[in-house]
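Human:
I keep going back and forth on a fold encoding question. Comparing notes only helps if you start from a blank page. Show me how you would write down a chain together with its backbone fold. Write it directly below this note and I will take it from there.

Assistant:
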Amino acid sequence: MALRIAFYGPVFDRMGFSTASRAYVHALHSAGLDITVINLGRKHLNDPLVESLLHRNIEPDLHIFSFFPQNVLPLRLMFPRLIVQTAWETESIPEDWATILADVREVWVPCFHNANVFQKSLRGPVFVWPHPVNPQLEVAAPDASRLPKLKESDFVIYSVFLWMERKNPLGMIAAFVNAFSEHNDVVLILKVRRMWIDIDQVNEQLQQQYKNAEVLKRIHIIAEEWTEGQMEALAQRGNCYIGLHRGEGWGYPIFDAACRGTPVVATGYAGPADYLDPQWHNIVRYVPVPVNQKFHLYNETMMWAEPDIEQATALLSDVHSHYLFHRERARAGAEQLKNRFSIERVGVMAKERLHAIYETLSDGTNGTANKLSRRAECT
């Protein structure tokens, strides 16, 4: 009999946790597990498979909660057989997370960096369950109606993120300006969410910092809601993805671009370090620095990465100058990634781990003797 799993997550939203939740549901379903899904967020996107699994009337053997740990408190008291799937981006987790996660069955994280970070603060097992290839990758019909006016010959560098210090938007702009001040055929498109950004203030800051008005005309910061088709058009038009982040639990936009075979220039830290490879991708070195973003989950002891903007500038320039070479190596890497992190492969990993957990429950043990931090078998 298939194990019965209740999966809780923001499955229809647009943030990274939501993309991961949808992909995980697809992975669990592909492995033949009996699933019921409980949506924890708003409904912005459609996914027929996930919708078909909502609120099914089953008696779960195990519960998987995929979100921030502070949101798990009610479930922790209700369900003793609870697995928390989450992620973090700095070198230590928030202070209260260790207390919240102390009594759950296991903690599952997407990358090896997270496994090391969480295990330092937890007594129980931490298992690496990587994010699968996005099941909605390249599914939507492209709609270019909201793209900036571009020439066919324009070389488009793009990024998709929420405007914050962790994503390092000003660093990406600096690398672009440094590399392409004299190239009228290179465009930077930053597709950001509307929250946490004042476009007028940002543009004023850029005008004060960069006196070259012509290069600023080629920087498009777009803070509006787009459909999946409009996002697909950007991804298809983009020649290079830039992600000079300071920390990522996984970094789905970077991962999606790499899985498409788009050349990537990104910081080789935390989550992306599990799937970026110098054989196929352009990895930016970094130094550890204190976190400088005001956020209620951060504190003054936390560290993250500061990417090398000078190296990023050189890598962007090289991708532009030798585009066919970089495109072919990125496409070769994409085939490897889509195999390593396929829905089916990630689903099998979860199924095997869930059965191992269930067996410890069935034989009367509490499951904590197997204290380990495992890297996913996806190499």
About this structure: The chain has 13 helices and 15 strands. Residues 365-379 have pLDDT under 50 and may be disordered. The longest strand covers residues 155-161. The CA atoms of residues 207 and 213 lie 7 Å apart.
